[in-house]
Structures are given as structure tokens and as C-alpha cells.
Amino acid sequence: MNVTPQANEPRFMPLRVASTGVCCSVGNDSASTSTAIRARLNHFRQGGFIDTAGEPINVAMLYDVPTWGQSRLQHMYRSAMTECLAGLPLTSEQLPPSFSSVRRESAESGFIATSSTSW
Length: 119
Fold this sequence. Notes:
Elements: H1 30-38, E1 44-50, E2 56-60, H2 70-86, E3 102-105, E4 112-115
Antiparallel strand pairs: 1-2, 3-4
């Protein structure tokens, strides 16, 4: 059996996770989320929504975010992406244009993590 790739077969490149970013109902960043998951915490409770039978629906709430719908999802995305980008050794010129309006200095010198406010 030949295990070396042939000339026309794709080669798989090693995958390296360079940074993470999370915003969910159990945490607004990677550290608090992973701690809550390890502790088996959740934020499920009866929400203000009802199903077709008129029964309340259990929901997992994202705390400290008073908006709903698309604005809430945008907040979650912006928070996760800002955290993720802050962990990468990139310069501001290497970031996508949509992450250019809000700047936050990173602990790594020469890197600026950004997030967009023009959704």
C-alpha cells in the first residue's frame, strides 16, 4: 500500500488554531465561556416568547445586552470577532475594511484589534 500522495491528489496542510473569540449565553468572552462550560452552567429559563400552543419557551439569555434581533446578533458577532482578532499578530493594514472604525490596543505590541459599528 502506497501512502505517499500522488501528483494530482490534494495535500492536507496542518491546522493551527491561532486565536479564539466567543460571545454566547454563558459568557461574553472565551475565558468566561470555557469556565462556565466546564462548570456545566447554563442560562436557560422561561423567556418572554411563547410557542404555537401558548406555552412559554425556555431560552438561554445573553446578559447585559438590552437589544434583540439583528442588533443582538451583530453585538455577539462583533464581540467574538474583536476578541479573536486581538489574539492574532496582525497589523491594522492586514485587517478587513469592515473592522476599522473602533480600535482597541492589544497586549501584543503593534497590533490593533478593531470592530465595525456600521452594520
